[in-house]
Structures are given as structure tokens and as C-alpha cells.
Amino acid sequence: MNEVNPLNKTVSSNYIQQHLANERTYLAWIRTSIAIIGIGFLMTNIHFTFLSKLSDMADAITTITGIVSIFSGIGIVLFSTYDYIKKTKQIDTQTFKPSKHIVIFLSIIILVLILGFTFYFFLII
Q1: 59: three-class secondary structure by DSSP
Q2: Contact of 36 with 113, CB cutoff 8 Å
Q3: I need a surface site. Which of 23, 25, 50, 102 has the fewest CB within 10 A?
Q4: pTM, whole model, 2 decimals?
Q5: Phi/psi at 62 (nearest 5 deg)?
Q6: Is 90 helix (H, G, I), strand (E, B) or coil?
Q7: Distance CA 121, CA 113 (A)
Q8: What is the pLDDT along the chain (125 residues), one digit of tens a residue?
Q9: What does the DSSP 8-state code read for residue 51?
Q10: Cα–Cα distance between 41 and 120 in angstroms, integer?
């Protein structure tokens, strides 16, 4: 009774595997942004709960790292959403080009956060 009419196929249905892979990639970016925000919250929470008496510099590094992680997570969500929509259109029009910008953006963010964490941990030791 629920037969699929081949005349009602959409352009996107021709590229189902590519669209599903695009969605999985988008969800991976979302998980990454949640993890980055969570790490920033965790570091800030642990510092100000247990180690806030260390120094003003440690407080500043912790605050800056927390703020950077929150804004980085938000930026990743926005950038990955834009990239997902762009890739969806490119898949349907068969003009797909891999994006290097989001990878470079995320790599720089991760590097900055790792440097902040490293500097903080050397400061508290």
C-alpha cells in the first residue's frame, strides 16, 4: 500500500550515503564542541573550588582558558552548521569540495587550549 513512486524522488535521495556521512561528520563536530566547552568548565570549576588560593596569574589563566573554550565551542557549532549546510548543497549539485577551514580552525583552537592548560599546570606544580 505504501509504494514508493520513483517519480517523487528528490535530488538528495540519489546521494543518501553522502548525506548520511555528512550528518555523522556534523554530529562529530557537535560532540567535539561539547567536549571543549566541558573541559573548560571542568578546569574552571576545579580551580576555583580547590585551587583558587594559588595566585592571581593562575586565576587569570583559568578564567581566560574557560572563556576561550566556551567561545571556541560556540564557534565550532556555528562553523560546523554552516559547513554542513554548504556540503549538503554541494552534494546535491555534485560540486563537493573538501573544506580545510574548519580543520584549521579547530586545530588552532585545540592548540591554544592545550598551551593554556600546559601553562596552567606548570604554574600550579
Answers
A1: helix
A2: yes
A3: 50
A4: 0.77
A5: -65, -45
A6: helix
A7: 12
A8: 445 555 666 677 778 899 899 999 999 999 999 999 998 888 888 888 887 677 888 888 888 888 989 998 999 999 999 999 999 999 989 898 887 887 888 888 889 888 888 887 787 76
A9: S
A10: 15
